[in-house]
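Example 3.
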Amino acid sequence: MSASVQRRPGESILSNPLVGRALGCLALSFVLALMIGKQEGTQQDFGLAFRQAVLGPRILWFLLIGVLVFVLLTFWPRVQPYLNRPGIRPLAVGGLTVVVAYALLKWTDSTAVSDGKFGTLSDAASQTGTLAPLARTFFTAPLPWVLFLVAFAVGAAAVVIRRAVLSWVGAAIAVLAGVWAWYSHSLVQSLLGSPDHSTGALVALLGFLTIAAACAATALSAEESANTRGFINGVFAWRPGMPLVGVALLLGLAGFAIATWFSPGNRNATLVDTASMFSTTGLSPLSKAYLGWLGYVLFALSLALAAYAAYRRDARLGWGAAGLGLVSLVLNLVALHDISAVGASTAYDGATGAWQNLGTGGWLACATFLLLAGAGYIVATAGSERGTIARTKADIAAGIGKIPGKSKALILFVLAGALFYPPMATPFWQKVLVSEIGIYVLLAIGLNVVVGWAGLLDLGFIAFYAIGSYTTAYFVGALPIQPPEWMRLSPLLCIPIAIIICLIAGVSLGAPTLRLRGDYLAIVTLGFGEIIRIVAVNNPGNFTNGPRGAFGIPQPEIHLGPIHIDWGQASLQYWYLLLVIVGLVILAFNRLEQSRLGRAWAAIREDEVAAQATGVNTTRVKLLAFAIGASTSGVAGVFFASQIGYINPDNFVLNNSILVVAYVVFGGMGSLPGAMAGAAVLTWLPEFLKDQVPAEDRQMWIGAVILLMMIFRPAGLIPAKRRAAELHGLDEPSSAETTAVAANEGMGATK
Amino acid sequence: MSAVIAEPTAPDTAQRDVVFDVRNITLRFGGVTSINDVSLQMYRDEILAVIGPNGAGKTSLFNSLTGVYTPQEGTITLAGRPGDAPRSVIGEKTHVINHMGVARTFQNIRLFPALTALENVKVGVETRMKAGPLSAMLGLPYQRREERESTERAYELLTLVGLRSRANELAGSLAYGEQRRLEIARALGTNPGVILLDEPAAGTNPAEKRDLADLIRLVNREHNISVLLIEHDMKLVMSVADRLVVLNFGSKIAEGLPEEIQKNPAVIAAYLGTSAEEAAGEVETQPELHTIADDTANMTSLDDAGATTQEETP
Ligand SMILES: Nc1ncnc2c1ncn2[C@@H]1O[C@H](COP(=O)(O)OP(=O)(O)OP(=O)(O)O)[C@@H](O)[C@H]1O
Ligand SMILES: [Mg+2]
């Protein structure tokens, strides 16, 4: 490198590549310094934020980052082999996790600690005399950071030098630090004594454990370069179902032994406490037994059965484990219902009905039983899985073929989270889950059909959402123009109507725009979206009620014979309604993607002329894409309108359309899980950042995340298999012939 | 030039069933006339080859036959499958013409690279099926049956073209020759009465060319599919084609049996880029031009005989 650096006379110093790079890196650190901290001055002092950002001593930290980046870039060839060593990736992930836990996450929800973050909490805790000395020591100023840095540094050294001793020392320090942090936090928690949803301590523990795992990997792996994916595949392939059993074991231990089951009056009662608390009340004998001993027995039994079935790969035992897991899950839910109902019957702590004042423990137990049942199911069905299955160890390591049970296991993890995380979350997050994450996931699934599968860029997607909402508003009678009495519907019955109306709207947008491609189509659909919104504002024939919109849209309810379900104000119930809707849509769309229509969409997206020449009716196929996407959006509209109760044109601005496109692209165009993950992450992120950065900075941070993502994972979070191939195909030069002038567009050739 | 057009010599043509009846079509792009007053008949179950130097208008002819381009003048009628009544294809959409029994491949391979080989063929097979989106979403039994049938049919076709073992590879990752064969399988999937092959041997090696010739004959004789073939490789053309049509600068300059075309001075002239008289003289001095189809070491195609070669290589 130094040879090329020598400067010839007369050349400016700036043309030296190293100097340029160094300046670039320093500029980067400068920008980073500006990004972190307050972004605005005051009325008197406009430059305040700027000076705070760059003139204080803290700029040194950022310059250090810049120098580090510079060194890394310059000596990249020499650094790079180390970065492929086994253990380096988990080490990095673990380090990052701990930093996030220390710097960003809340460690308590108690109002006694102002912002609940680690720094504030540890300051307060180290001053508290009543806290046990062990915990107080942990929270004493630099110690937690020192612990982390030592663990991380020893881990890094172990990766570089590859000494087994060093690795084990690092692992021990990391485990010690993690457990210490967790334990100290739980002591603080019992001192504060308030119900708590904070994740900081748990995340820190997980981060430390990851670091420990990285150290262990360094010590145990004989290979020169890491194969993380191969390792993960190996874990899943060893015994299908076993990873689920492992996770279930951890969750179950946490749930049955540590976590809170019932927390009225700011008391945190574990399972044992809860059992004794309810021993004298009128709890049903079954639930009493469940709390007292049956729960533990069921946990131990189903865990053992699932593990044994997985180990023996025995399908019949697998079905047994699945059955036992489900029965236990039901018993567990019954017990949870009973204790909360008894609690509510005495109006304990303002409870008005069942399912209130429950802690995390019961839900963790639910997740445990679901995962164990799932593990049994995977064991039972692993043998009959179709498709190309990876058979040899080498195949598994190289990621060739399918790992039996892997996708099912991942789906079960997500399902367990979706079912049993929300009741543990704070009301704030429950609301976010429903009115942001859930709805936008549904919208992204719909748009993915149009943009991802059929390849038609639609920038007016939110219009169908609006149509769905206004349809609901009309049919429930919330608009100035009332429907005739016999046409009045309850919100859930509006879903089929909205689907039909959006199908029609989708086709009528699609039909005139079909000849357009790419950018032109995008502009026309954008216009369509604006037309719908402006029509809603202009209130033609007093139908939309103008800018004021519709209000008083009733909550959904179901009255079917003996079943009466009424969705009130609480977000949690809507979450489960949404989960049912999304689940059905996913099932249907997953089949659709694998059907002839799904393949036809891929065909027209890849090569329209070839698709036509193969007999694909491109007009029909495109219209179907528009219609199906639109009706999904319409369903989301119905849900939105009846959940929130009032709508107005401001809910349907262009910005929302663009956001949905961004979610789909971010997650991975054409991939159903990708689009969902994209929507979930990008709707979660702004809410998460609310606690972390000043409000004005939020968009900037989101932008930065999207930018990084597009640089490092251009195909999206979870890229579609079909799309990924396409992206790589773009490298090859396209050949001439009919591609030179697209079909049907040759000058004067047609029509 | 019209003086040298050889009349079709097959004696029984009058009675034979016509697949494509092309009459006086002219196709212009702005000032460029890529097909100039061309007429030709293609008969049921024959292998008809269209040859001509680069830019002669062969691909334009294919595009006109399949509705990708619409000629400004002339008529094209089609009786795709045996027993069909002749119908005009001018102004019909490409996919409609495909449903009338015309399948094709492309000169520059146009597969769906991100789909697997199997899925590529299934796209073709499934354009003849009925199940709609609703039955797919609900997984109705008849949709599942169709799905199974299309998979079986696709596997049969992949076996036919020798790609069964690559069924689950992405089409874009196949070798060049394999992609060409996959295109043929996809075209056959639409159950055609006539298949149009645009330079199927371009960029393939001699062994693959032999296999291809066998495949074309098999498709023609066993599956009773008429074949319209564009090809630059004269050995292949002469060995498989029943009849040839020669285009040059958008006009038809000759039509006839392979032996006749080989001796036709106008054809040789077109390939050598000289006038017919000069060509006749050259044939005297260079007897090997008589056997342009011979597989001599340095002359496997007429391109090598002097036509400018723009053929893409993989
Ligand atoms: N879409 C188009 N727009 C303008 N000109 C075109 C178009 N398609 C074909 N041409 C012109 O028509 C003429 C015939 O082209 P064509 O592709 O049919 O030749 P070809 O016989 O297939 O040649 P090759 O052997 O190179 O494939 C060429 O001059 C070409 O430039
Ligand atoms: Mg051509």
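The longest helix of chain B spans residues 141-160. The radius of gyration of chain B is 20 Å.
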